[in-house]
From TrEMBL:
This is ATP-dependent 6-phosphofructokinase. The active site is at residue 152. It is found in: Cytoplasm. Residues 1-363 are annotated as: N-terminal catalytic PFK domain 1. ATP binds at residues 11, 74-75, 104-107. Belongs to the phosphofructokinase type A (PFKA) family. ATP-dependent PFK group I subfamily. Eukaryotic two domain clade "E" sub-subfamily. The chain holds residues 17 to 379 of 785 of the full protein. Residues 4-309 form the Phosphofructokinase domain. Coiled coil: none annotated. Catalyzes the phosphorylation of D-fructose 6-phosphate to fructose 1,6-bisphosphate by ATP, the first committing step of glycolysis. Substrate binds at residues 150-152, 187, 194-196, 250, 278, 284-287. Mg(2+) binds at residue 105. It comes from Tenebrio molitor.
Length: 363
């Protein structure tokens, strides 16, 4: 059977454990040897105790846990060729030529570069007598399947990233809790939610919590947003509403690309309306806690499909992402997704916001 290793990289997200579990069990079921690489790329570079063979029971009782039990890291060593050389040696030593990468776009791009470099890394390992010519021949191709784990839902090529649904559950719970205290005191609350440069969490949170206003990066408000915001809040109060909720994405910006922060919004509300206003920054609570049923199933399906993709792959198979398309788990070329995700970032940087939304919508 093939040697497959699974690792989680970058920010953790709920549902990653379900994916790890599915990779291990589907791999073993199909006769592969499956390894954990602990602490992401750092573990691949360091080898030793960080790369361990998994068995059926090593993934028992993890499906319900948040985070990633095999650890994650943002690794600087892997960005250098010397680090990747060590990583390649560690994989060859164990006969691992298949990787399941669970992470965001940076982690997935890193995997693709590693794959492109693979034959030159093996060449160098032979030249320096770290591996044999036989090993070089036997392990000459590296196959990659990626799963997108992130609460941000910011990756083009999949409808939902693993963790987004659970993060929304956390956010909604917090919004509901805030509403009751806001109601009692007739207050206005500004809730800051995560998402980096993506407004998905903010927009869904706003729609599902009946917020009065939302600020997202992809759709910066008109220049007179302060007046529009105040008019809207005032109107709601005049209609008898006892509270106001404003959701602001952490990456919210105005039409010039300058940040719109919770503090700025608070000042506008207080100065113009004299409303009793508070800010709640949800922070990493959004990334913690147990995964939702949706994320557990998503992780399971994506993990199983990743192993099937690797088992069916031959030397000419391009690296893929396992994506959710409608309700189907499908394989899409890794580099297409990375390219499209980068195109969104570029459109945002160029302040071509409509284009960014259009490109994102195609995911
Ligand atoms: O990408 C996930 C995310 O939680 C973003 O929403 C947020 O901007 C970032 O990670 C926070 O990073 P860190 O955990 O390193 O503080």
């Amino acid at each position: 059977g093939k040697g497959i290793a699974v690792f989680t990289s970058g920010g953790d997200s709920q549902g990653m454990n379900a994916a790890v579990r599915a990779v291990v069990r589907m791999g073993i079921y199909l006769g592969c040897k499956v390894y954990f690489i602990k602490e992401g790329y750092q573990g691949m570079v360091d080898g030793g105790k960080y790369i361990v063979e998994a068995n059926w029971s090593s993934v028992s009782s993890i499906i319900h846990k948040g985070g990633t039990v095999i650890g994650s890291a943002r690794c600087m060593d892997f960005k250098e060729r010397a680090g990747r050389l060590k990583a390649a040696k560690n994989l060859v030593d164990r006969g691992i030529t298949n990787l399941v990468v669970i992470g965001g776009d940076g982690s997935l791009t890193g995997a693709d570069l590693f794959r492109q470099e693979w034959s030159s890394l093996l060449e160098e390992l032979v030249a320096t007598k770290k591996i044999t010519v036989d090993q070089q021949q036997k392990y000459r191709t590296l196959q990659i399947a990626g799963l997108v784990g992130s609460i941000d839902n910011d990756f083009c090529g999949t409808d939902m990233t693993i963790g987004t649904d659970s993060a929304l559950h956390r956010i909604i719970e917090a919004c509901d809790a805030i509403v009751s205290t806001a109601y009692s005191h007739q207050r206005t609350f500004i809730m800051e939610v995560m998402g980096r440069h993506c407004g998905y969490l903010a927009i869904v949170a706003a729609l599902t919590s009946e917020a009065d206003y939302v600020f997202v990066p992809e759709s910066p408000p008109p220049d007179d947003w302060q007046k529009r915001l105040c008019d809207k809040l005032e109107q709601e109060r005049q209609m008898g509403q006892r509270l106001n909720i404003i959701i602001v994405a952490e990456g919210a910006i105005d039409r010039n690309g300058d940040a719109i922060t919770a503090e700025m919004i608070k000042k506008v509300v207080v100065d113009n309306l004299q409303q009793d206003t508070r800010i709640t920054v949800l922070g990493h609570v959004q990334r913690g806690g147990n995964p939702s049923a949706f994320d557990r199933i998503l992780g399971c399906r994506m993990g199983a499909e990743a192993v099937m993709a690797l088992v069916e792959a031959d030397e000419n198979t391009e690296p893929c992402i396992i994506s959710l398309d409608g309700n189907q788990a499908v394989r899409v070329p890794l580099m297409d997704c990375v390219k499209r995700t980068k195109a969104v970032a570029q459109a945002m940087a160029d302040k071509k916001f409509e284009l960014a939304v259009e490109l994102r919508g195609k995911s």
